Amino acid sequence: MIFVDTCILIDHINGKIAIHDHDKPQMAINSIVENEIIVGAKDKRDLATTNKILSDFPLLDLDQDIMNTSTVLLNRYALSHGMSIYDAIIAATCIVYDLPLWTHNKKDFRFLDIELV
Question: Which of 28, 29, 81, 108 could bond to 58 as cystine, CB 3.0-4.6 Å?
Fold first, then answer.
């Protein structure tokens, strides 16, 4: 399984990246990615289409281990690397679930021990 970052899903929704239906079960997101995508919807029709696309991806639970790990990451990297809350939770999800991260924003995660694809 691979964790899909928000930027990849945005490109998929906008038709810049094709993610085939048979690949989606091997890809996952969390509620942070889901929420980041939802707030980008332009209108109710766009929101409905967006929610349909999101429903095709397995949704990983955010638990206390992930939140604790994100707090450690923020304490370590928020000031020195400008890590955001959202990126910390995404990175913590990858760490806890031991998943590679598919992202265009490698600079946001390159200093972590996460496989980036």
Answer: 28
